[in-house]
Specification:
Strand content: 15-25%
Number of helices: 4
Order of helices and strands: EEEEEHHEHH
Shape: flat
Oligomer: single chain
Length: 197
């Protein structure tokens, strides 16, 4: 069985050649409008004229602040569990938080720089007075809430500041919150200490 030789076959002459079938070429058919029967012009890639180019539409941004009759702009900012109600009006650059001086309320320089950032970015640090009522949370949360409220107030005051404020993420609400504690756990995920013996 292992020494069996297969008969040789001639590969040059096929036993039964399949008849050749002529395939008709597809004619280019122009698209037609079914309602009128007229030919609809089609465009190839790169042949679009400037007259047919889509027109850029100006996007209306949501303004999350309001202007009072006396010219004061009011906005609200939130961060963690803190809420800051911010009032901005033309002035000399004084910042008051919960009826206390700015430097007294935020003794840590990092928080002061964080609150001043939107004002310095827009170039109005010495031109407006800021009054803030902040409650809830700690200093970090309140600083973040004030920044959001301040950015929203500046946006309501001058709409052309939107691109620069949005580029630096001052108009974005930081939605991170503390995860709730679960039963059977010491904290949100931390379990009680386990002792085998």
């Amino acid at each position: 069985m292992a020494d069996e030789v297969l008969p040789e076959t001639d590969v040059t002459a096929p036993e039964a050649a399949a008849p050749e079938v002529a395939v008709p070429e597809m004619a280019a058919v122009a698209p037609t409008d079914s309602s009128t029967g007229s030919v609809v012009p089609s465009l190839d890639i790169g042949s679009q004229s400037s007259a047919d180019a889509p027109v850029a539409v100006a996007v209306q941004h949501v303004v999350r602040g309001r202007t009072l009759p006396d010219g004061t702009v009011v906005a609200t900012g939130r961060r963690k569990t803190s809420v800051a109600r911010v009032r901005v009006k033309k002035g000399t650059g004084k910042i008051t938080i919960n009826d206390r001086e700015f430097a007294e309320y935020f003794p840590v320089e990092r928080y002061r720089l964080e609150v001043e950032a939107p004002l310095k970015l827009c170039g109005v640090r010495g031109d407006v007075d800021v009054w803030v009522r902040a409650n809830g949370g700690g200093l970090a949360g309140q600083a973040g809430a004030i920044v959001l409220g301040l950015a929203r107030a500046l946006h309501a005051m001058r709409a052309e500041l939107h691109p620069i404020l949005a580029e630096h993420s001052f108009l974005t609400r930081d939605d991170r919150m503390v995860e709730r504690k679960k039963y059977g756990h010491k904290k949100a995920r931390r379990s009680f200490q386990f002792s085998k013996r």
